[in-house]
Structures are given as C-alpha cells and as structure tokens.
Amino acid sequence: MKVLLLKDVYKLGRAGDSKKVADGYGRNFLLPQGLAVLATPGALRQVENIRSKATSKRAALNLEMASVAEVLKGAYVTFANRAGETGKLYGSVTPQMVVDALNKKYTLQLDRHSLETEPLRMLGEFKAHVRLTVDLTPEIKIIVHREGEVPNVPATEAKAG
C-alpha cells in the first residue's frame, strides 16, 4: 500500500513523504490515526502544502521543547540495585523507572515511550536518548551501581549538587 504521510511518523518518515507500507500497518494504524492518507493523484498534488504546514509545526514544537532538551542535555540518574558477583542485577532497571526518576529529579512530564533504551540488567554506566521531537534527542546517562556503594557521578554534577 502506498501512503502519503500527513504527520511525522517515528522510524517511517516525515510529513509529505510518500511511502510504501504493509497493508495492515496502513489500514489499521496510519489511516485511522490520521497520520497518512492513500497516495492518490489528488493527494500527491497536496504534497507541498502538507510539507510547509509540517515544517512550521515542527519548528514551533522544536522551539517549545528546546528548554526541555537543554535541561536533559548531560542529565543523569542513578539506581542502587542488588547484584551478583558478576555484576548481573537481581531484576532490572526498566525504561519506566528511568523516566520516573527523570521526571522527579528535573520536574518534567516525559513518558516511557520517549526513552530509547532496553531494560538494563548489568551494573555500569549506560547512555540513552530521549526522543522529544524528530530533531531533538538529547542524550542522558544512567548509572546503575551496587547497593551500599557510592556511584561515579559526573564531575560537573558532583560539584553542583
């Protein structure tokens, strides 16, 4: 099925792009959600109009989310967990736990779907991206340390806090 995207779709394309997608994905998700329309000759004539509207919306959203991106740039969260001899955790640190910690520490309203990471099952320092918009994806640091030990926090944050 060939569709014309009306809005930016993560991992598919930007508004105004014409894409070939699986029939079920188009029929059951993209079309009902209003993210795309069938790529008919009439719809294809609207491409420039769709692109210009999407560009202005994207610019406004980027401007709005720039302050959140600035807060998250270089942000970190720490988790104290029990772990075995090899450093493997008893349990895991889930994306929801990371987002909850970020929301509490920096007073934000992020959801777990914006965090690009898998559940963490080892001790160590990990990096993850927070997808605020298509263009804004600040990188955060997740530090998982053993209970009772002092975490290695970034030097700039250790002096400030």
Please outline the helices and strands.
Layout: E1 2-5, E2 18-20, H1 23-33, E3 36-38, H2 41-44, H3 47-72, E4 76-81, E5 88-93, H4 95-106, E6 115-116, E7 120-122, E8 124-130, E9 139-146, H5 155-160
Please name the defining characteristics of this protein.
Ribosomal Protein L9, domain 2, Ribosomal Protein L9, domain 1, alpha+beta, three-stranded antiparallel sheet, 161 residues
Overview of the molecule:
This protein has 161 residues and is of the alpha+beta class. The chain has two domains: 2-45, Ribosomal protein L9, N-terminal domain (Ribosomal Protein L9, domain 1, 3-Layer(aba) Sandwich), CATH 3.40.5; 69-160, Ribosomal Protein L9, domain 2 (Roll), CATH 3.10.430. It is 37% helix and 26% strand. The chain contains five helices and nine strands. The chain has helices at residues 23-33, 41-44, 47-72, 95-106, 155-160, and strands at 2-5, 18-20, 36-38, 76-81, 88-93, 115-116, 120-122, 124-130, 139-146. The strands form three sheets. The protein has a four-stranded mixed β-sheet with strand order 4-9-8-6, with helices on one face. A hairpin with an 8-residue loop joins strand 8 (124-130) and strand 9. The longest helix is centred in the middle third of the chain and has 26 residues, at 47-72. It is elongated. It starts with a strand and ends with a helix.
